[in-house]
């Protein structure tokens, strides 16, 4: 960085210009070289565990000082398990097929030339994230493998850890002969840097915010660069009148309790009126046995009370609340149409499931629910890039444009058309 | 519209809510029904030519009164030729395959259930356009065929014509039994309506602005809804040292002069230094013979002057100017690398061409130029949805996310995952 670049805005602009230049090189780098850099990074991380943990200790100490909650400190911590997770993740990404250069379609023009649609990187991707420092490495690697230059802007709590990780990334790039500016960490967590970054739409082609709703909302409202949003999941499970009750119990319990703090966990349970008296008590008892608090509309509450099961009243607000906790809201519906209308109104278009043995009802649900992933007799917990065979995941898009649902390497790409002829002109 | 909905913001909000509801129905309407509505619209337009021309005459008279330029009045005019163009376009779209429901990919999960990726509509699309009234019908039909509800916001100059056309669209929808709110024209051209519209990201999933750079910039800077931008084309032609000069002449003349006012017309000409003395005079004379003004850098100017061909000096600004007119900027470059660096710096990532007989140089160019369409020995004038075999076109995206280059029916779609199993839960 030259000395005349003194203020934050110029510094961020320079980072973006360097990223743009690096992205043009990176777009045509061989898979071998990209994989070599990723594998070298895995080694470097392994070789530098004590140094990384030392930098992380600084962040943790500062976090305690600043009064971060236990959950926040937990997210911030880079322990042995998380470090080996990063290393293993890097090796997995290196082993994945390269998405760049794949031919997606070919059209033979009547005038005798060929139009080929080819997958190419998006260009420069800005990742804005909060306290988890492993995001630095995970995102850098996914962007690198997909041929994109990346600009990383991490949270201030993880600044020392992120800086140490980014240094290893730079080292892996330069040792491999790849442009060092292909991955850059913004060297300040000043808010002004992010505000500048979000307006650099000539250099940066895509912003992916990773974090809570507040961050995502701020980024989407202030960015002139297209943003791929990863909002929360308000996932609903519908037990149809033709449900197998044992299966319903198993899927509802799995969706709700397997890992309650993630976006593909169930939050709402709808039960068909015709079977609510028979099925709800069994399912509710299984949930209660796992420690789940039940919130119910008046009709479901009557059924639960008659069966001697405790519950609290559900309010209008509950239907669109992502608890991320052992709480579930229960409502009785007349049929699949009411269930679909409920989900399309209160859900977040993430993941929703029907449990039924009737194909016709299931088909209506799969077609009619406007969510990225709709399940028939499967737990919602499977919405995930690895489970979907993508091999890796940068997140789960709640947008409709570009990528929807789990985003892997292919979703980090755009395409271009290559037209090859022998002098054809437009008649 | 109920009487309590009095102010513009509530009115626009209601339009968006109605569109969202209509979109959920439309997403699962059969191809037959959608085609029936489109063909009925074609008939209705044919049956109502005098009425349409009468409404258009009002707009034209008001435009003349308001002092619109000849070019603006021309865009506004709905003459017999344009009406039959709309009708023919509608019939062509009806005949195209339905993009909705197509299976894009299937993954068999190791636990024995199936994950199918299926093409679905985006949802609600807002189209914001300027003076051409035929956009009303063209966009309504493309959105309808792709299962999307649309909200149209046309320019104030075309208000009477747009209103008359939108009435026919509503009639075609209701006669066919499709939701009438599947296509809605905002019934006011008050700027407040557009400002409200651009913030309704819960109801509207995508905004496509169609018009000049000012409109697109305003929309992208003020929208909280993802925008697919269709910016201008600054297209460059590179005549390599290994070019066939007759082919180079033919392609450069075609790209520049075939239809100078469109985005895929050539604006810059780069010539390899090794052949500039031999090739440039021939190409420049052919351009001059078509009335093209030549702007040249000093090196090219010397060659042209030595050959007795008039030219003006090209400035730094010229390299990134979209003339849309019979003007071309000419520069001498050392090699394909300099040509690519020039295009990646000054171009608009739209369409660029190399003319060469050397495959290696051409490959470097096709890979290294960061544009939606890169041509080898073909005129840039082919960047167009019809020419690319898409059957129709809503525009040419200059974005990288979602759609790049010509956008047809498939590019107006998103996808969802349908997961079908037998009770699988996450272990």
Automatic annotation (TrEMBL), chains A, B:
Subcellular location: Cytoplasm
Pathway assigned in UniProt: Amino-acid biosynthesis; L-proline biosynthesis; L-glutamate 5-semialdehyde from L-glutamate: step 2/2
GO BP: L-proline biosynthetic process
Reactions that this protein is recorded to catalyse: L-glutamate 5-semialdehyde + phosphate + NADP(+) = L-glutamyl 5-phosphate + NADPH + H(+)
InterPro entries: Ald_DH/histidinol_DH, Ald_DH_C, Ald_DH_N, Aldehyde_DH_dom, G-glutamylP_reductase_CS, Glu-5-SA_DH, GPR_dom
One Gene Ontology molecular-function label: glutamate-5-semialdehyde dehydrogenase activity
EC number: 1.2.1.41
Chief location category: cytoplasm
A Gene Ontology term for the protein's cellular component: cytoplasm
SUPFAM superfamilies xref list: ALDH-like (SSF53720)
Protein keywords: Amino-acid biosynthesis, Cytoplasm, NADP, Oxidoreductase, Proline biosynthesis
Domain Aldehyde dehydrogenase: start-end pairs: 9-289
Record's function text: Catalyzes the NADPH-dependent reduction of L-glutamate 5-phosphate into L-glutamate 5-semialdehyde and phosphate. The product spontaneously undergoes cyclization to form 1-pyrroline-5-carboxylate.
Similarity section: Belongs to the gamma-glutamyl phosphate reductase family.
NCBIfam families xref list: PRK00197.1, proA
Protein name: Gamma-glutamyl phosphate reductase
Gene: proA
